[in-house]
Amino acid sequence: MAIYAIPNDDIWFPPENLYDDQNDIIGVGGDLSTARLLTAYYMGIFPWYNEPDERLWWCPRERCVLFYGQEKVSHSMRNLMNKQLYQVTMDTHFTGVLDECRGGERAGETWLIDEMYEAYHRLHEEGIAHSVEVWEGDQLVGGLYGVSLGHMFYGESMFSRKSNTSKLAFIHLAKYLGSKGWKMLDCQVVTSHLLSLGCTGIPRAQFLQTLKEELAYETIRGKWTNDFASWCDRNHRSLNEINKI
Questions:
Q1: Facing residues of 202 across strands?
Q2: Are 112 and 95 in contact (CB under 8 A)?
Q3: How far is 173 from 165, CA to CA, in rounded Å?
Q4: Is 68 exposed, middle or buried (0-12, 13-18, 19+ CB in 10 A)?
Q5: Which listed residue, 73, 109, 134, 196, has the most CB atoms within 10 A of its CB?
């Protein structure tokens, strides 16, 4: 199985025609500079750690994605929205979301080590990484973050402090980007949780072809706070209207 050594002194990844059809991992090594991360995301590759000192670069053979408009809103989610307990914002507390993802649902795993944490902060400062926050009063109780290039949003992680609040963030993000005519949200690896939200697994080749199409659009840099708030105000003044969008 071919897994390529990624050099530290050169921004390089193997092209798609060199990927191993039997492996989800395409490389090991390299650094997490902004230039390298952007190159990776443009190629449909993302970093993930198995051990703190083992940086792996992934492009799964089966890619988990959400096609906008196919998101599922369960009965329990409808009940949650009807209660109108939470406020949803965007790019208001990226650090808080990153902190919670680091120490919340996936605590004990090694993927969001200091190097990764700092790298995504840099992407946020560049206006490329974004967060969705769910608030109960002034308490952050759920959210997610990811990277956006062109018309592609690459979901990285989510967390919940209260039941279903990460799902609430996910649904809002999907409705928001879908309303802009975007096509596909990257969710990386298929899990039962993501399938329950309406995601599906597609072949790597299909993902990479669709990615090329979505990356042809201009990247919208900067905070999306105001645009997201305006969209929420225009489309659902109360959370129980979200299924009508």
A1: 63
A2: no
A3: 13
A4: buried
A5: 134
State the CB neighbour count (10 A cutoff) for residue 35: 9
> What kind and span of H or E run contains 135?
strand 129-136
Tokens of residue 230, six digits:
């305006």
Report long-range pairs for 111-118 (Cβ below 8 Å, ≥24 apart). 111/48, 111/49, 112/157, 113/49, 113/52, 115/32, 116/32, 116/47, 116/49, 118/32
Token reading at 125: 């400062």
Residue 144: CB atoms within 10 A of its CB come to 26
Residues 126-139: tens digit of each pLDDT: 999 999 999 999 99
Nearest to 55 by CA among 40, 73, 75, 71: 40
Q: What is the pLDDT of residues 189-222, one digit of tens each?
A: 999 999 999 999 999 999 999 999 999 999 999 9
Query: Considering the entire predicted model, what is its pTM?
Result: 0.92
Cα atoms in the Cβ-side hemisphere of radius 13 Å centred on 108: 2
φ, ψ for residue 11, nearest 5 deg: -85, 90
Compute the distance between CA of residue 217 and CA of residue 245 in angstroms, rounded to an integer.
Answer: 24
